[in-house]
Each structure stands twice: as structure tokens, then as C-alpha cells.
Amino acid sequence: MYAYIIRRFIGIIPLMIAVTFISFIIMQSVPGGPLAVYRNNPNVRAEDLARLEKQLGLDKPTPVQYGIWLKNFASGDFGQSLASNRPVSEVIGERLLNTAYLMGAAFLLTMLIAIPLGVISAIKQYSLFDHGATLFSFLGFSVPIFWLGLLAIILFAVKVDWLPAGGMRTIGEPFSVSDRLSYLILPATLLAFHSAGQYSRYLRSSMLEVTNQNYVMVARAKGLREKTVISRHALRNALIPLITVVAFDLPALFSGALLVETVFAWPGMGRLFWNSALRFDYPVLMGIIVLTAVLVILFNLFADVMYAAADPRIRLTSEKT
């Protein structure tokens, strides 16, 4: 098992180089370029543009620019933001914690809703509860989240004035747990509502398949309690497809949710990426893309490890290879 994990880690290096190189080429191919903001400014002379190009290394061939960027990146230098002239790592770091705070709460709430919903729906197939859970799931991933966010603001922030309309804290007020939670409730609940429907359907389908397997029937024949059969034998194996989906979605914990962050004015990574794209702030864009790529690769490795933990058969296969 450990040898398998080490091989996967070694394989990450060429994969990361390929991902960063393709991303860098795409960034260079986007119309406008990093100096697009200055090109349309009548007060900026051609000599100024030439000086900026030389200062930023944009006058060099693309492979050379990528080599310089990769060397700096390997040493922990993500470059300077063209918009704020601050280190990219500092700009991203400010927003990363905000996004992790929001998305972590939303993910926890999603799991608390999706797992019981999926399991009970499978156990009580075609019951009134199952039909209600199906309706909830379809609404969750079919209703536009930005429309639902605006509706929630009108209802809970404007009409009844229970919760704040946006932001993540009351400006000018000292830190308070209740204050932070009041700003967190609406965006986290909407994100959970959107994801829980999808996850619960995956788990319901997997549970229905697993409960008809021979080992589950044998467990029942041994006289085990139904609760033990479901939790120890059925659910553990039914979680494997869900782990795959969650592993692909976990990078969003740090890359942010653009629509929700925009609707609720949450200062996170999603809004930072959008604002950087509008300002042609390529170093920040590259920093976010690389961070997301690293997280996708690492969480896929995490999913493989979780497979082995959930299913001993997978663990034995990885040890043989």
C-alpha cells in the first residue's frame, strides 16, 4: 500500500509540469495579454509599454517565460500581482482562508444531509420519504443557485430581517462567533442544498445495488441486526462511488464558488479569480489554476487511499501491484 502511494506521488511531478505548461500556454494565447489594461490608455506611451514588457519578461519567447516561471514557482515565488503589485501568494492567502471557511461548513452540512437521505431512501424505496427525497434532490441540482440566493436574500434579509444580506462579518464590530455564523448560514445552506441532492442520489443508487449482494444476504442470514447489516456491511461498500464524486468536488473547498460568493459578496477565491480575469492579472490566475490542479491531483490520491480503507479487496490488489 505504501509503495503504491509513493509511486503515485512520484507520478504527480510530470503531471504537474504538463498541467502548468498547458495552463501557461493558454494564458499566453488569450487576446489582450497582461498589458491589455495599458494598451488602450492614451497616457501610456509605446516606450512605457516596451519598458514594462522587458521588466515583466514578456519580451522573451514563451518557453523561456515558462522556464522562468517554473523556476520561481519551485522556489515558492508565485510572482507579483499586476493589479495590486503584491505577491500572488499573499493575495491568494487572504482569500483562501475565507473560501475554506465557507466551503468547509457547506461540505460538512452537505454530508450531514446527503448520507442519511441516501441511506433511508434506499432502505424505504418507493415510500413517501423516498419520493420526497427524490423531489428534494431534483430541486437541489436543477434550480439555479444564483436565483435561489437572490430569493433567500429577499426573504431572510429584506422581508423578515433575520440574517445579513452579504459579506462575512459586521464591519467595525469586534470578533463574535454568532456574528460570523449569521453571515455563514445563507451561503453555506445554499451550497449544501445544491450538493446534497446530487450526493444523496449517488448513495441511494449504490445502496440499492449493494443491499442485493450475497454478502449482505449472508449477514442477514446470520441473524445480525438490520442496523448492523446496513452500517457495517452495506454502507461501507456503497460509499465507494460517493468517494469518487466527493474527491473531484473537494478542490472546490479551496477554489471557491463563484456564483454564491458573488451573490453574497463573500471575499473568496471564486470572486478573486473572476476579478483577476477581468483585470488580466495573469500571475494571480496562474496561481489559482496551479493551486486547484495540485488539489485535484492530491484529492484523487486521497480517494484511492479511501477506496483501500473502505474495501479490503482494493487494498490487497494494490499491495500485489
Relevant terms:
globular; 0% strand; 321 residues; mainly alpha; MetI-like fold
Describe, in plain words, how this protein is organized in 3D:
This protein has helices at 2-29, 36-39, 46-56, 62-74, 88-123, 128-142, 145-159, 177-210, 214-221, 226-249, 252-255, 258-263, 269-278, 282-310, 312-320. The mean pLDDT is 80. It has a domain at 92-278: MetI-like fold. The longest helix is centred in the N-terminal third of the chain and has 36 residues, at 88-123. The protein has 15 helices and no strands.
Unreliable residue runs:
none
DSSP, total strands: 0
Approximate shape: globular
Q: What CATH architecture label of the domain at 92-278 applies? A: Orthogonal Bundle
* Biggest beta sheet attributes: none
The CATH superfamily label of the domain at 92-278 reads: MetI-like
Order of helical and strand elements: HHHHHHHHHHHHHHH
Radius of gyration: 24 Å
Which CATH class of the domain at 92-278? Answer: Mainly Alpha
Strand content: under 5%
The number of distinct helices, counting runs of at least 4 residues, comes to 15
- Distance between the terminal alpha carbons, to the nearest Å? 9 Å
- Which structural category do the helix and sheet elements fall into? mainly alpha
At the third CATH level, what is the topology name of the domain at 92-278?
Answer: MetI-like fold
* Helical content class: over 70%
Tell me, rounded to a whole number, the average pLDDT: 80
